[in-house]
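task queued by scheduler; priority normal; single chain, no ligands, no partner chains; default sampling; output format set to structure tokens
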Amino acid sequence: MAVTTPKSVASLMQKTLERQAAVARMRLRFTKNQVEQILVNYVTKNISGPYFELVKVLRDYPLNDDNFRIVFDDSLSCVVLLGRELDKYVDVVCNIEWVSRSEELADLYKKFVLDLVTAHTYHCPKVMMRLVTLFKAEGENWDDSGPPPELLNKWSNIHDVICHIVAIMPMTSDLLMHIVIENFPYYKAGCYINRAYVHNMIWMSKYLPALKEQIMTAIVTRMIEMDVNIVENEKNKVTSDMMFEMDVDTQDETSETLDHCMLEVLRWLEDERDQTLNILCNVFERVILPTYGIRHVQFLLLYTISINQQCADRILTNLWRVAAGLQGISPGALTTRRTSASHLAGLLARCVRVPNSRLIHYLRSMSEWCHAYISATQQASTASDNLKAHGAFHAICHAVFYLVAFKHQFLFMNKDNVNFVESLNLPRLVTCALNPLRSCPPQVTRAFSSVTRQQQVVYCAAIVEKNARHSLQAVDARQYDDWFPYDPYTLPRSGKIIWPLCIEYKDWLKDGDDETQYSSMKRKLEAEDDDFLVSASPTQRLASSLSNCISPGFRASENIFS
């Protein structure tokens, strides 16, 4: 006779318990006023046995529609009794599944919750917490057409309760915002959970406009965390000899999550336009601008200035004021000034809808500021190319070099434009004692040197060779700032909105107008092998299609870098 193994015994016991639970659920039947009587007896007569049994049943067994109706009808009848001493009962009742039930039963739950928090504000935090947590339920990601109707119906029920609670008790909006931020999913929790949460935060901002800026700040802050994680993983990948498959999968998942979140925010900006765009400008100046090294989230700003002229004027003006130290109170932190210069140059160079008149205006302003700075340092007792002492000057010079190299097709297209470039007096910037080319990223130096040599505007070869010899002899190698905020955008789904707004760099030796990143991406992706398109992830395909580009978007041409 075969001996039953412990594993088999455990399995049989588990099946028996599951059968018993199923039978209990089928037999569970509440009668009208039964729940109310149990609660009244517990509060008035301290009869605890039936009360604790009721709490256990509601916690362990799902309710059918009939029992659900009885429980909430009875709870409504004695809502005045549901104070602190019935805290456990309130906990389990609020956790009963309700969003997917019929409209009648969902309305019954909503009425109970509203009466509860009105009668006992003490319960409001736990009710709000439960409602917000429902946005983090597991599910399947939806396509670009939007969430399915049944999912929207569930979310609509939740938002209806939140809206009514805040309308009844306006002071709870601060509590709600705290709970929303506290419950924001971890970025590695998965694409669906993060996207659904962002979608519902945006939904919340529509009926709670006073919280819109706080909501956008919370969303952008979390997206920056994802962006930083992607950048760090890419750095680790480059410096590591080998990379586990698990790390690759995690990286792709994080990129996919950020891609969908960017898509949600871009559609939000597109739907609501002016007011929301101005709020994004505030969030950019407060949250995105001080953040160094991110590669995707800042494209929200490029989108904003592309569709709103007022925002474009405000952002470009403020970036220049910060970079040049013109705020009036103090020049500001060096890191922020350098980051502002990078953003300003990137937006002027890459944004399709920034007119060339703005490019000329800011190139003139930058060069005049740099010449004034050189004159001021020449009057000082000593002048050196110390990057810490003159970091803002170096950053603004680099922005000038970047723009001249990137926008060379426009700047050298006719005699009037060439005369404008000559009026910038670039040779003085290049040959001054502060030596901005020494700290300039090599790819910008090479492109700028090549373009200006060809156009006979500046000859940088001697300075570049001198700096190269100095770098070889230096004990500590100089670290270049190789971050260009508006390098080619690589997230494929949100990229469909971003790419048409981005100009791609064109070599000066090649004819043709600037093309958008969209047309370039489309051409490259269509040229790839169909089998590769099927097998590779969207992120991998785009990474491959961009392999011939290096920061700051200049193509690796032997001619231009000679």
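post-processing summary
- Confidence is low (pLDDT under 50) at residues 1-5, 241-247, 528-552, 555-562.
- The longest strand covers residues 503-504.
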